[in-house]
Amino acid sequence: MQLTLEFGGGLELLCDSVKSHNINVDPQDGEEQLTMKNLLSWVRTNVIKERPEMFMKGDSVRPGVLVLVNDTDWELSGQLETVLEEKDNVVFISTLHGG
Amino acid sequence: MDSNGVEAARIRQEIDSLKANKRNIEQQISSLEAQLNQLEVNSNTVCPQPLFNGDLNNSNGLSPDMIYRYSRHLLLPSFGVQGQANLLKSSVLVIGAGGLGSPALLYLAACGVGRIGIVDHDVVELNNLQRQIIHTEAYIGKSKVESAAATCRSINSSTQIVEHREAFRTSNALEIVSKYDVVVDATDNAPSRYMINDCCVVLGKPLVSGAALGLEGQLTVYNYNGGPCYRCLFPTPPPTNACQRCADSGVLGVVPGVIGCLQALEAIKVASLVGEPLSGRMLLLDALSGRFRNVKLRGRSLQCEACGDDAVLTRQTFLELDYEKFTQTPLSTGPLKLNFLSPDDRISSKEYNEKVTKGEAHVLVDVRPTHHYKIVSLPNSMNIPLSTLEGRLPEISAALEKEANKENGSNASLFVICRRGNDSQVAVELLHKLGFTSAKDIIGGLESWTHNVDPKFPTY
């Protein structure tokens, strides 16, 4: 399954300062669907290069990170249970405080 | 040459004295204008007739001056007289007169908001002027609120400007915010953002929230018309080290400029009751790629600790909250000052300078990131960023050996420096573990070098 991942608000620093990633990831063996929960663990292993604790806490993202699936807050699509589809766009963005 | 120098000093002194006089006179004018505005406001309340008393049947309450000043607004069919009249009756509080607050205040003053409040405890510094465009060089060292208020008054003397020259704290928040219709969060730290949100929830005020860092910006409206508040989105504060500051990470001036302008726009929409405020949505700006992204956010959370159905937030509990503790971040934006090494493992910048002057054999490792090192560095220092330190130990060994050979085999000392003396301690601790047991850090880093050894050494 082809997905586009984007990191912003400083999270790109955890993956060699690359903001946009075109990835190819398939459901795990025995699973029919790819959920956000699966994707997060895949991202942690395959995309995050340093300080994974700045990206994840437990099996979800750390506090202060907004997750958007096709430009919509993942709270509206089921959070960790959100089922991903071909060509979906997933954005991880850290909230900013500067001004 | 000498008499030229004396003459130049005299002229500079005279310029400074004249500038001081000028500021003084400008302050007096601002203060008198404010008094005059207040009188006019009061007399309008006593006698609620339109200022214009000509023969025309003009019932919209706008004076001829106002009609002329705001004519381009009045000509907008979707804004018009009603939008302007609503705006003139409204009040907006801007918290923070920095990178976001500057452009927001300029537009809010120009557009005809009836009353504008400005909160900030800070003074204007030279390194603010690259982005905080409401301030000018003449106000360096003076209160940001005073400076911003003077600019606002010079743009529009018919808008009432209220100065709150104080830090925004739980103790004064409710009293200040209760006097305004709309709040603009233009602050720069996490505890302030939670505090402002909670205060707005308690008092039922819409909150226009903006943030900018580096080359990115974020904008949304909280607590508006049943929409989510800041805590609905971020119930748990982020870890302290996830909160970068402009003073550490940098910011391109125009980025908070864009977001601050958009905050003024949202405040104007909310205050004039025109358009569709950005509630339940967030605008994300990626300046580097020139992209805006408008995303849909969750609605109000029923479990929210501030605005949810079972929320216990009241005026009283708000006063008792400790936001610095909650976010583990200080409200003041002063830099972090670590001090965990034993005093034996540290030397002052003055002591280091003495060693250099005496020609003692040593190696100086500067552990700042390379782009910092390029701004300014001490002569004969070697740049090994903290993040790469472990992998570059052989370079340090080689440098120490070379230095010792110069001194016929005596041992060379190892010193570590950074910008403020925090990372250098982390580096020394690491070096000790890796066998460089004599490594010492220079207390207070390059900032201390400027303050205590060489005042001409640039700071940033």
UniProtKB/TrEMBL annotation, chain A:
Quote the subcellular location field of this record: Cytoplasm
Q: Which GO terms describe its biological process?
A: protein urmylation; tRNA thio-modification; tRNA wobble uridine modification
Q: Which domain of life is it from?
A: Eukaryota
What InterPro entries does the database record attribute to this sequence? Beta-grasp_dom_sf, Mopterin_synth/thiamin_S_b, Urm1
This protein's record includes keyword Hydrolase: no
Instruction: Extract the SUPFAM superfamilies matched here.
Output: MoaD/ThiS
Q: Name one Pfam family in it.
A: Urm1
One GO MF term on file is: protein tag activity
Q: How is it modified after translation?
A: C-terminal thiocarboxylation occurs in 2 steps, it is first acyl-adenylated (-COAMP) via the hesA/moeB/thiF part of the MOCS3/UBA4 homolog, then thiocarboxylated (-COSH) via the rhodanese domain of the MOCS3/UBA4 homolog.
Q: Cross-link named Glycyl lysine isopeptide (Gly-Lys) (interchain with K-? in acceptor proteins), where? A: 99
Q: Which GO terms describe its cellular component?
A: cytosol; nucleus
Q: In which pathway does it act?
A: tRNA modification; 5-methoxycarbonylmethyl-2-thiouridine-tRNA biosynthesis
In the record, 1-thioglycine modifications are located at: 99
Q: Gene3D superfamilies recorded for this chain?
A: 3.10.20.30
**UniProt keyword list:** Cytoplasm, Isopeptide bond, tRNA processing, Ubl conjugation pathway
PANTHER family noted in UniProt: RURM1 PROTEIN
Q: What does this protein do?
A: Acts as a sulfur carrier required for 2-thiolation of mcm(5)S(2)U at tRNA wobble positions of cytosolic tRNA(Lys), tRNA(Glu) and tRNA(Gln). Serves as sulfur donor in tRNA 2-thiolation reaction by being thiocarboxylated (-COSH) at its C-terminus by MOCS3. The sulfur is then transferred to tRNA to form 2-thiolation of mcm(5)S(2)U. Also acts as a ubiquitin-like protein (UBL) that is covalently conjugated via an isopeptide bond to lysine residues of target proteins.
Instruction: Please report which protein family the annotation says this sequence is part of.
Output: Belongs to the URM1 family.
Q: What is this protein called?
A: Ubiquitin-related modifier 1 homolog
Supply the source organism for this entry: Solanum tuberosum
From TrEMBL, chain B:
Subcellular localization(s) per the UniProt record: Cytoplasm, Cytosol
Coiled coil regions in record: 8-42
**What catalytic activity does the UniProt entry give for this protein?**
[molybdopterin-synthase sulfur-carrier protein]-C-terminal Gly-Gly + ATP + H(+) = [molybdopterin-synthase sulfur-carrier protein]-C-terminal Gly-Gly-AMP + diphosphate; [molybdopterin-synthase sulfur-carrier protein]-C-terminal Gly-Gly-AMP + S-sulfanyl-L-cysteinyl-[cysteine desulfurase] + AH2 = [molybdopterin-synthase sulfur-carrier protein]-C-terminal-Gly-aminoethanethioate + L-cysteinyl-[cysteine desulfurase] + A + AMP + 2 H(+)
What does the record say about how the cofactor binds? Binds 1 zinc ion per subunit.
The kind of enzyme this is, by top-level EC class, is: transferase
Q: Which residues form the Rhodanese domain?
A: 358-458
Residues reported to bind Zn(2+): 229, 232, 304, 307
Which cofactor names does the annotation list?
A: Zn(2+)
One Gene Ontology term of the molecular function aspect: molybdopterin-synthase adenylyltransferase activity
In the UniProt entry, which residues are flagged as the active site? 246, 418
What does the UniProt function comment say about this protein?
Plays a central role in 2-thiolation of mcm(5)S(2)U at tRNA wobble positions of cytosolic tRNA(Lys), tRNA(Glu) and tRNA(Gln). Also essential during biosynthesis of the molybdenum cofactor. Acts by mediating the C-terminal thiocarboxylation of sulfur carriers URM1 and MOCS2A. Its N-terminus first activates URM1 and MOCS2A as acyl-adenylates (-COAMP), then the persulfide sulfur on the catalytic cysteine is transferred to URM1 and MOCS2A to form thiocarboxylation (-COSH) of their C-terminus.
Q: Which HAMAP family match?
A: MOCS3_Uba4 (MF_03049)
A GO biological process held by the record? Mo-molybdopterin cofactor biosynthetic process
Binding-site residues for ATP, renumbered to this chain? 99, 120, 127-131, 144, 188-189
Q: Which Pfam families match?
A: Rhodanese, ThiF
Protein keywords: ATP-binding, Coiled coil, Cytoplasm, Metal-binding, Molybdenum cofactor biosynthesis, Multifunctional enzyme, Nucleotide-binding, Transferase, tRNA processing, Zinc
| Protein name in the entry | Adenylyltransferase and sulfurtransferase MOCS3
Q: Which CDD domains match?
A: ThiF_MoeB_HesA_family
Q: Which NCBIfam families does UniProt cross-reference here?
A: PRK05690.1
Q: Which GO terms describe its cellular component?
A: cytosol
Biochemical pathway: tRNA modification; 5-methoxycarbonylmethyl-2-thiouridine-tRNA biosynthesis; Cofactor biosynthesis; molybdopterin biosynthesis
Q: Which SUPFAM superfamilies match?
A: Activating enzymes of the ubiquitin-like proteins
